[in-house]
Amino acid sequence: MPHMRGGARAALGRAAVLEVSPLSGGRSGIRARGEISVVTRRSWEQALSELARRHVGVSYVELSDVAFVDVAGVTALAVTAMNLPEGRVVVERPPPQLPRVLELFWPGLDRIEVAA
User: Which residues have a Cβ under 8 Å from the Cβ of 57 and sit 6 or more positions away?
Assistant: First the structure.
């Protein structure tokens, strides 16, 4: 069942929404769609907690349908990866700010692999 969180984005006049669901095709991980921001942070962190609980070796985070991720959202991902007992997280097709924030604050973090 997907996690959803919405809220007001007064400046843009629309609601920020994040949908997170399990990956299909036998891969361990999650697919996110929408925005990762202060409005949707709780859903994002819950999804990452679930990902960590189910993690075995390599977990995938598919972000091709994520329009925006803020620094705190990247931080939650980095902290989740650093706290895994082993293995890594492969982030697939993230928004452009995610790899830049990772490189800025966690250069050389080998627990996260960003795949275009």
Answer: 28, 86, 87
Q: Read off the pTM.
A: 0.85
CA nearest to 54, candidates 79, 95, 33, 23: 23
11 vs 110: CA distance, rounded Å:
37
Alpha helices by DSSP H, listed for 5-114, are 41-54, 71-82, 97-105
**What is the β-pairing status of strands 14-22 and 29-36?**
antiparallel
Distance CA 86, CA 56 (A): 8
* pLDDT tens-digit readout, 43-100: 999 999 999 999 999 999 999 999 999 999 999 999 999 999 999 999 999 999 999 9
Find tokens 């995610």 and name the residue. Answer: 98
Q: How many CA atoms lie within 13 A of 90 on its CB side?
A: 12
Which 3 state secondary structure label does DSSP give 115? strand
Residue carrying structure tokens 């999650």: 30
